[in-house]
Amino acid sequence: MIIVCPLCEKKFEVDENLIPDKGRLLKCGSCDQTWFFNKNFSEQTEPLIDKPTNQKKILYKDENINKSVSDLPIKPGSELVKYKSKYNFTFGKFLSYIIVAIITFIAIIIVLDTFKDPLSNIFPNLELVLYNLFETLRDFILFAKDLN
């Protein structure tokens, strides 16, 4: 069964057996909107208020439900639909990407230096480029030593 959040309109696929016949309180994992869902009434998912508020007391259209969200018990972690952010970019991941880039660069240099004789037939100035690259790397190492 596909359930749509009435506020952010995000779609969630939920097992139909998890929702009883009398309905269930749902919480959107994306926008934290809470609403009562009954599978017998599909039009009840639209709240009376269109704009989100910081208050948790929102009444809904369905006349069978005279409860507000704050009156219904909500246990933390008991949401039917949980949303996890896809992007967790941290400083540690950034450093790991830098290390992988450095290792890849060194591997390319080793491969080019190993096969420089056959590749110099295709790229005539390869030996000069590699020599300049090695001299530049030596300059970086000397610069780093001079900082101490």
Summarize this structure as a short list of keywords or feature phrases.
single chain; elongated; two-stranded antiparallel sheet; 148 residues; alpha+beta; two-stranded antiparallel ribbon; 3 helices; 4 strands; 9% strand
Explain how this protein is built:
With 148 residues, the protein is of the alpha+beta class. The protein folds into two domains: 84 residues, no CATH class; 57 residues. The protein contains three helices and four strands; from the N terminus they run ββββααα. Strands 1-2 form a two-stranded antiparallel sheet. The longest helix is centred in the last third of the chain and has 24 residues. About 11% of the residues have low confidence.
Shape: elongated
Taking the sheet with the most strands, its summary is: 2 strands, antiparallel
Mean pLDDT: 76
Radius of gyration: 30 Å
Order of helices and strands: EEEEHHH
Strand % is 5-15%
Number of domains: 2
Level of helix content?
Answer: 25-40%
Class of secondary structure makeup: alpha+beta
Strand order, sheet with most strands: 1-2
Count of strand segments: 4
Alpha-carbon distance between the termini? 65 Å
**What assembly state would you assign to the polypeptide chains in this entry?**
single chain
List the helices and strands and how they pair.
Elements: E1 2-4, E2 11-13, E3 24-27, E4 34-37, H1 91-114, H2 116-122, H3 126-147
What is the compact description of this entry?
This protein is of the alpha+beta class. 36% of the residues lie in helices and 9% in strands.
